[in-house]
Design goal:
single chain; alpha+beta; rod-shaped; two-stranded antiparallel sheet; 66% helix; 134 residues; 2 helices
Length: 134
Amino acid sequence: GEIDRAVLVYPRFISTLSQRPELVQLLPVEPPSQEGEQQERRRLDYIFEPDPQSILEQLLPRYVEVQIYQALLETAASFFSAQMVAMRNATENANDLVSSLSLTYNKVRQANITREVTEIASAAEAMAASSRRR
């Protein structure tokens, strides 16, 4: 079958914290819009060796390959970047949880120590009071 248009959609890597969806039309290839002086240069006649059709037949598959390869690289960079950010966030959350649990553990431990000291002091005071009565 034939296709009218081929479009490539991928996550464009902007930075570690930012990726955005990108839509690129692969086929048909449209020349960039040119204005002014560039448009005048474009009207000049060029001599092509081999003929323009042969050049296009050789370059077009390579162009599509490069566009797809670039999309794959940016997708991989976006994936690894998002994975790195997710792991950093998970590590920070785990560290916060460990700190919170350590604080709770230390409070409970301190409360148990205080209770035991109070029990020992009460027992010692009761024994001292008991020995004074005799």
